[in-house]
Fold Methionine aminopeptidase.
Amino acid sequence: MALIKNENELAKIRMAGRIQRSVMASLAEVVKIGAVPKEIDKLAEKLIRSAGAEPAFKNYQPGGAKNPYPATICASVNNVIVHDAPTNQPLKEGDIFKIDIGVRYQGYNTDSAQTFILGRPKDKRAYELVGVTRQSLELAIEAAQTGNTLGDIGHAIQSHVEAHGFHVVKGLSGHGIGQKVHEDPHVFNFGTPGEGMHLEPGMVIAIEPMVAVSTPDLVQTETEAYASKDGSLTAHFEHTIIITSEKAEIVT
């Protein structure tokens, strides 16, 4: 797939992003103690389809996955960071709940994620973890300017996360996005300023810092999700952005 999208492609990506923003805002209103992830998933699919779009993740099978993904959202709790399918297990007091969702509009995709704290978590660092992860995404988007590199983006995330004593998880990254959910380039959450691919107007990438309290190491679960190896809490935020001649345009 082309790294540089034309104006027709960007228009479709922007529309997918508008739908995605609306859906995520609606889901955020129903995330609470006692909410059932499978019901949140049903709502997400209903909202996406009613807006004239499709769930980008449902039945999608990324490289390395044994089976197509069965749901509209990824619904990951506590130490699980990404790619867990929603269950009928109600959310509990203190849970750290992550929603990752994709929207496809007229053949073009967007992708975003958000982390929620339900009530009072047992680990008091949960608040800092979530805040630092969100801030690292904001810093990465600031670094995503024409002439900068993918290494600048990764460094912005890594340096902020590690300055607060947390860990960028290994083996997962952001990505290009367009007609496919996962396109080139890989957008790593670590890096060296000035290294890697240079950013150009028209590139569309999904930046998604994934952070754990006390380890960079992951394990894959029986459901093909990824979790912190030591069981520590994790957080995940993501936006799809368009590189422009000025600052990045956030489409989700």
Observations:
- The chain has a mean pLDDT of 97.
- The chain has four helices and 15 strands.
- Helices lie at 7-30, 37-50, 125-143, 150-163.
